[in-house]
Design goal:
This is Zeta toxin domain-containing protein. This protein has 230 residues and is an alpha/beta fold. It is built from nine helices and six strands; from the N terminus they run ααβαβααβαβααββα.
């Protein structure tokens, strides 16, 4: 980032810190979200363009008590200066917002859907905090072939102006799968991992519930060099 972007990034971060109440009122107000005597935490995982948000919304409809959907993209929209094409500038602010909303939901026994790639650095901490609270914890890994997922990110950029660079896409495509497998290995029965496989037309092709490793069902692995050629 250049100096101007760095300045905007820091301003957004500080703004989110100072406006925690506004953030909570907008996305997780106890007036709109009821506590649950058996709250659940769901983590979405998968590359950009895989269709995670659509799946998250379908899952949310199945809850008795409305879950808080924590989405970094929605938090970015909450920040002044965000225009979609500068998403990377607001990553620090979005991460802080996720932390604030996650803390609030845990403290108030609200069910959570954390909608993201699961490629981020704090995934272990977030899963562990829900596990330690005795919550039911599930992870939904949504897979779409990389060419189709990359194509959809470009279509979305043209419509919403939300830019995902090839570098970010590649990192998320690889790390989301690695982290999901590692989460299941580390937490064992404390975490249920499910797999949703989509085809090149974005249609759901297969569901696999309560699996132990994604690689048992998706044999294809792509190198960084192969993904660069998309």
């Amino acid at each position: 980032m250049d100096k101007e972007d760095q300045k905007l990034s820091e301003e957004a971060f500080e703004w989110v810190k100072k406006n925690q109440r506004k953030l909570i009122e907008k996305f997780a107000s106890v007036k709109d979200y009821a506590s649950d005597n058996k709250p659940v935490t769901l983590f979405m995982a998968g590359s950009p363009g895989a269709g995670k948000t659509e799946v998250a919304k379908r899952l949310a409809d199945k809850f008795k008590a409305r879950p808080v959907i924590i989405d970094a993209d929605e938090i970015r929209k909450f920040c002044n200066g965000y225009n979609g094409s500068n998403a990377h500038v607001f990553q620090k602010a979005a991460n802080r917002g996720i932390h604030i909303l996650y803390n609030h939901a845990l403290a108030n026994d609200l069910s959570i859907i954390l909608d993201g790639t699961f490629a981020y650095a704090d995934w272990m901490i977030n899963v562990e905090r829900s596990v330690k609270r005795g919550r039911k914890v599930e992870l939904y890994y949504v897979y779409q072939p990389p060419a189709a997922a990359w194509r959809l990110t470009q279509i979305r950029e043209a419509i919403e102006k939300r830019k995902v660079s090839k570098e970010i896409f590649i990192n998320a495509f690889i790390k989301s799968r690695e982290n999901a497998n590692e989460a299941k290995r580390h937490f064992g029965d404390a975490l249920e991992m499910h797999l949703i496989i989509k085809n090149n037309n974005s249609d759901i092709e297969r569901f696999k519930f309560n699996i132990v490793n994604i690689d048992y069902f998706i044999k294809n692995k792509y190198s960084i060099e192969e993904l660069k050629d998309l």
